[in-house]
Amino acid sequence: xxxxxxxxxxxxAVASAATLLSLTPSPATAHGSVxxxxxxxxxxxxxxxxxxxxxxxxxxxxxxxxxxxxxWNEVNIANADGKHQQIIPDGKLCSANRQKYRALDWARxxxxxxxxxxxxxxxxxxxxxxxxxxxxxxxxxxxFDPTQPLKWSDLDATPVATYSTPRASDNGYYRFTGNLPxxxxxxxxxxxxxxxxxxxxxxxxxxxxxxxxxxxxAKAPTQTAIDANASRSTVxxxxxxxxxxxxxxxSAATQTxxxxxxxxxxxxxxxxxxxxxxxxxGRRRQRMN
Length: 289
Prior knowledge:
The chain is of the alpha+beta class. The chain has 7 helices and 9 strands; from the N terminus they run αβαααβαβββββββαα. The strands form 2 sheets. Strands 2, 3, 5, 6, 8 and 9 form a 6-stranded mixed β-sheet that branches. The protein has a 3-stranded antiparallel β-sheet with strand order 1-4-7. Helix 1 packs antiparallel against helix 7 (260-288). The longest helix has 29 residues, at 260-288. The protein is globular and about 40 Å long. The model is unreliable at 10-30 and 238-289 (pLDDT under 50).
């Protein structure tokens, strides 16, 4: 084969590899928030970011603006990698230590709350992208003081529910059953959702009251409200809003159904590297001749 033909072949290989890389799907970013019992951010979003009803939601908007509410499904840390207690300090659990969501950490007794009782409880988590992972729901210990910032030591070590999140959802929801222990008064249910196909994790605080709630009743956003305000969100399935970085790509070992996607990417990269090497070799041979 002549030097010219070798260069043409190498260039063709590079183009083919680049095309394959562009067509190979990248893992979507998972997002979501607890709708049952409604999380703080989703309850305030449900009231309407521009016209919140409860005093605490009005104060949140006055302090942090409306964007945290439009981004109700984003309270995350991109590189958590299971190190939740190491990277989120006490008092910052509800915001995941993100400045954007700082108001969610306020230790107040007027957060909209859900009335609950001891026994079986059906959790509903609204997601905007489904991903492999583990979702754990914790509850505060007996004697928890809601006027004090939430600490890791306030949570029972044993989750009230653990759910292996699949790639498929029930019409945009993860639905699973847990068991709430006996408590009195106001408590917090804390969600930790760690993805298995990325280092990213999601967090959230839901206020519950055993018996009759003394504050406003927490309501979950309607699909109509979600759709109507989607254009105002900075969150997408391909990246993050706020100040976070994109999560690490999924590895072949963590992909359900086999390593086809990761292998395709690896093969594409290998083909591109080979093609570039062939092109350089051809040029070198031409100069030598």
